[in-house]
Specification:
Largest sheet: none
Shape: elongated
Order of helices and strands: HHHHHHHHHHH
Number of helices: 11
Strand content: under 5%
Radius of gyration: 22 Å
Number of strands: 0
């Protein structure tokens, strides 16, 4: 809905530079005359696309790794969990900077890098769920009937284990949005599209002269991250059986 909400083209340059918020420009203009409100509206596209897509990648990888580790156990569990620990020990932001600096920026690469770096938490949650559920009576009954391991993992255990992973997925979306904002701040995201991090970068020399250049994209990042954290809290209340009983 950005074309219907924005009042100007996000990349349109004008002579109205550094105008404070007013009737013609609700969020003011930046140092080259771009409308800040329109840039914030279009920047939401980048944050939402990166956040949701990277969160989906993290959720998918976490489900696969956690399910295999929890169900198979043994050396498979040890190898996968050591890999998860490696990704958790290395700072995600700096590793993402190094990878994107080597591979080059771009929306698809940003999504892939953030998604690949965000799966360990989901994997550990799913692993714990599989460890607890694979000895239940329903799984023993499925084995007795002769169902394959793939059927047992996907049809019997996963539907009962996925609730906490969905909550973690919502948190991963908010983390991906913050990480994308940081990467775009350093010019490593999508240079062709307006993004909130890039807006904050350009606002640095004008913090005292034009406060609106940094305040509005910063508030947008804060609001969107808070929204997905509240979604995660709501999903936890809805999917947690212990909270349902209370």
């Amino acid at each position: 809905f950005a074309p219907w909400i924005a009042t100007h083209a996000p990349t349109a340059i004008s002579r109205d530079r550094l105008l404070p918020p007013g009737a013609g420009h609700p969020f003011g203009t930046d140092n080259v005359g771009k409308d800040v409100f329109s840039a914030v509206v279009y920047g939401a596209r980048i944050s939402l696309v990166v956040g949701l897509a990277a969160g989906a990648v993290s959720l998918l990888l976490g489900l696969i790794v956690g399910a295999l580790a929890g169900y198979r156990g043994g050396w498979i569990d040890s190898v996968l969990m050591r890999a998860a620990e490696f990704f958790q020990i290395v700072p995600r932001f700096f590793l993402a900077i190094v990878v994107l600096a080597l591979l080059g920026g771009g929306l698809e690469k940003t999504i892939l890098v953030i998604g690949v770096l965000g799966w360990p938490a989901t994997a550990r949650i799913i692993r714990a769920q599989f460890l607890a559920l694979k000895e239940r009576e329903m799984v023993e009954a499925a084995r007795a009937v002769g169902f394959s391991d793939w059927h047992i993992m996907v049809r019997e255990i996963l539907p009962n284990a996925i609730g906490p992973a969905i909550v973690q997925g919502a948190l991963d979306v908010s983390e991906a949005i913050l990480l994308e904002a940081g990467l775009s701040f350093f010019g490593l995201s999508n240079p062709q599209a307006p993004s909130w991090g890039e807006m904050l970068n350009r606002a640095q020399p004008f913090l005292r002269q034009a406060w609106w250049m940094s305040v509005f994209p910063g508030v947008a990042i804060f609001t969107l991250v808070l929204a997905f954290n509240l979604v995660a809290d709501g999903l936890n209340d809805m999917l947690n059986p212990e909270l349902k009983e209370r």
